């Protein structure tokens, strides 16, 4: 898969007050050097998030393609990132040794989808690691993430690496995560990181509906080697724009008819979706220690109270309804 590459002129690379703090993935800061990913995942939220952005509209118009069919990088990203980290005289802006905030990357694009991005991510991380006292959490669907770890080995105590593994079946992932390395290769990379003393976390997002949630949760915990992960994030498949419709269509076309039918069922019935989310959460709670589990759940007024009972026990309750629920 090859996509045309475009550049945006966004000056801000680091977002100091990202909403990802609510997901517990960071302490506020995130950074991204792109706006559209090398990969093409059917469930991706970025195209819907960028639908009304004027600069993205202009780029899509020029390209004559949808957001998910483009790679969009931010022009002079490293230089602009440095500008955010230093004062006008070039001295570091964040000098407090006690400022150990965790910065997450990337909220929009994969940080290690190819070697060009690997090199860019290494340099972006070096800027943060040398100019601040922050920690960094990196997330990728690529086994190339290990290349970043090797280059930043001197900072083992400050960088945390996660490989996205929402499904454990190579053939299934290949269908709805177009262009990504095999899940088995990602897990091999995760194990390499763990065996070589790097900090790791699990990221099971999104998890498709399962015929046996207990069996899936047990296999996931074993393959992620939960005892070696600092935390494990997980999430159900959520409705974002046309994500569920795309996923059903792609799974059906790829021969995964049963899986497509299960996604269709939870996508068209709120009660089914809630039952699926709760079943997955409770199964994971039996295989992942509660203090490690971070199950991200967007709640409604009707469901908020149930999920609120599990805050502090593995549930990360999200959405506007969570703010008013008691």
Tell me what you see in this structure:
This protein is α/β, with parallel strands linked by helices and 326 residues long. The chain folds into two domains: 1-140, no CATH class; 153-326. The protein contains 13 helices and 14 strands. The strands form four sheets. The chain has a seven-stranded parallel β-sheet. Strands 1-6-4 form a three-stranded mixed β-sheet, with helices on one face. Strand 8, helix 5 and strand 9 (159-164) form a beta-alpha-beta unit. Helix 4 runs parallel beside helix 5, helix 8 (213-224) crosses helix 11 (270-285) and helix 10 crosses helix 11 (270-285). The longest helix is centred in the middle third of the chain and has 17 residues, at 115-131. It starts with a strand and ends with a helix.
Fraction of residues in β-strands: 15-25%
Computed Rg: 19 Å
Number of E strands: 14
For the termini, the CA-CA separation is 48 Å
> How many distinct folded domains?
2
Helix content: 25-40%
Order the strands across the largest sheet as they lie in space: 7-8-9-11-12-13-14
The biggest sheet, with number of strands, parallel, antiparallel or mixed sense and barrel status, is: 7 strands, parallel
Globular, elongated, flat, extended or rod-shaped: what is the shape? Answer: globular
Secondary structure tally, helices: 13
Low-confidence stretches: none
pLDDT average, as an integer? 96
The H-and-E topology, N to C, reads as EEEEEHHEHEHEHEHEHEHEHHHEHEH
Helix-and-strand structural type: alpha/beta
């Amino acid at each position: 898969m090859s996509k045309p590459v475009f550049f945006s002129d966004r000056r801000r690379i680091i977002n100091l007050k990202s909403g990802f703090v609510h997901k517990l993935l960071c302490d506020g800061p995130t950074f991204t050097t792109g706006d559209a990913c090398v990969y093409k995942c059917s469930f991706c939220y970025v195209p819907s998030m960028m639908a009304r952005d004027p600069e993205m509209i202009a780029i899509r118009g020029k390209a004559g393609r949808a957001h998910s069919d483009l790679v969009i990088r931010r022009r002079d990203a490293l230089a602009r990132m440095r500008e955010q980290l230093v004062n006008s005289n070039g001295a570091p802006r964040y000098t407090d040794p006690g400022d150990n905030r965790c910065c997450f990357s990337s909220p929009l694009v994969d940080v290690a989808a190819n070697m060009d991005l690997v090199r860019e991510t290494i340099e972006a991380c070096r800027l943060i690691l040398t100019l601040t006292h922050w920690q960094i959490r990196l997330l990728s669907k690529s086994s190339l993430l290990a290349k970043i770890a090797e280059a930043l080995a001197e900072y083992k105590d400050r960088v945390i690496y996660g490989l996205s593994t929402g499904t454990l079946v190579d053939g299934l992932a290949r269908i709805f995560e177009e262009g990504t390395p095999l899940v088995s290769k990602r897990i091999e990379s995760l194990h390499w990181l763990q065996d070589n003393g790097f900090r790791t976390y699990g990221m099971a997002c999104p998890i498709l509906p399962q015929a046996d949630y207990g069996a899936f949760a047990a296999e996931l915990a074993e393959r992620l080697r939960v005892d070696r992960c600092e935390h494990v994030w997980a999430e159900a498949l959520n409705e974002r724009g046309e994500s569920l419709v795309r996923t059903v269509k792609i799974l059906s076309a790829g021969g995964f008819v049963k899986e497509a039918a299960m996604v269709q069922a939870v996508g068209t019935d709120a009660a089914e979706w809630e039952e699926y989310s709760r079943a997955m959460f409770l199964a994971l709670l039996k295989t992942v220690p509660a203090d490690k589990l971070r199950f991200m759940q967007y709640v409604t007024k009707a469901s908020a109270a149930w999920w609120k009972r599990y805050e502090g026990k593995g549930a990360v309750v999200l959405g506007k309804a969570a703010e008013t629920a008691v």
